[in-house]
Amino acid sequence: MPASLNFDFAIPPGRMPLTFCLLAFIVTFFVTRTIVRYIRSHADSDAPRKWWQPRNIGTGGLHIHHVVIGVILVMFSGVTMVTLAVDGGVPEFTAAAIIFGIGAALVLDEFALILHLEDVYWSEDGRTSVDAVFAAVAVAGLLILGFNPLSFFDIGIWRENHSFAARASVVAIAVLTLLLAVVVLLKGKVWTGLIGMFVTPLLVVGAIRLSRPHAPWARWRYTNRPHKMHRALERERWLRRPVVQAKLWLQDAIAGMPRFPDDAKVNEQLDREIRAAPAPSSRAGADQLDKEPA
Fold it and tell me: Per the record, which residues fall in region Disordered (predicted)?
């Protein structure tokens, strides 16, 4: 085979811990969802459980959620990595990273429980856990591929040119990038802002384009410009429909109900997600009226 066709798929040693952490995270998440689905499907069965069959963990009538085990593993691996920070090698860090990935998966799988402080695992609010897992996998994947947040701090000018002008220009670019990220997040584009921290041109595109209609930016800038709000609503519904269809299908598949969503369910989800932001002065005006004497 010609030398030009040889490919090197070796993982750089510096990314080995993160790679195995991500693999442990993904495997643990899917294994956990499979076990939970199995337990749920056999919840009403009166047949005696065999020793190898998964079951809920509990003691004295107390149900122990797997987020508790995840927190313990995350804390243990965190302390281990801090201890290894000085003299630890790649193998030790990789082992600790695997434990961290397992614990993080158990925690994020019940992220909705932590957020709502109630057991919403199988409800609509429980989809927040799946969203949190998607975000974690996306960030870890970008890091493994070599993308770094605010990577302009690693450019040669920062390391080689120690003049005030050079350093000031890098800091100015950093501040500008962070401001763009804030604008993108205020426009309601969480994924664009998240990935844009690794791929800066996305922040520029997200900052220029229309805000999502329910976002703070739309509340401040579009409530007195009905034409622009209408454009934002129409664009949101047109662009979000295929995304919502794919998202509902994937979330249902992971949550245990794999089916392609019908139009009624997609429209219902769109109606919940796509709404015009209220005018910023409406609440202030109502509060003022409440304070005035009758």
Answer: 271-294
